[in-house]
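Many introductory courses stop at the sequence. We go one step further.
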Amino acid sequence: TGVDFVDDDGRQNVSHRARLGTTMTTDQGVKVRFMLQDVRIWGEELNTLNDFSADGLDVRAAWMALPLGEVGSLKLGRQAFSLDDQRIIGAVGWSQRARAFDGGVLKLGVSSIDAQLFGFQITERDGRGGDGQIANPRGNEVELVGAHVRGDFGDALKVSALAISDLIEDAGRTTVGLHLT
């Protein structure tokens, strides 16, 4: 009782995050990753004998990465994605559920310059919730597309440029920025 010096409700919760996955790599360098994730508060199920809802169970990663010679790769599927210390886009691994994106990333690199082109489906108009109902029937589809270029110039300077757009039906938002480290 007395959590944070407030004497109202003394309940404490224990939550967990469990992940089980595998990565397979072929001799040609093709990688395939699949991972399940279960996040829940202990005791949240109403009955341990017949509550099979598993609301916290989801696919964390399901992607394939194809090498593109010596200069890059193409990764397609559900994946964690982070840029520049996660200041604008990140997998936020410190959060219990964390974040995964559905889409693709094209990575190219030459010398000390790396570039990424990416596109992700953020919201689908007819996306359905766990009960099979359309979650937001009046919502718009939203895609996130962008480009990120980063150059490392010794230990003293790292420069990256980012341009992203949220593509919303009949609207949108674009953000550009420069990150110096």
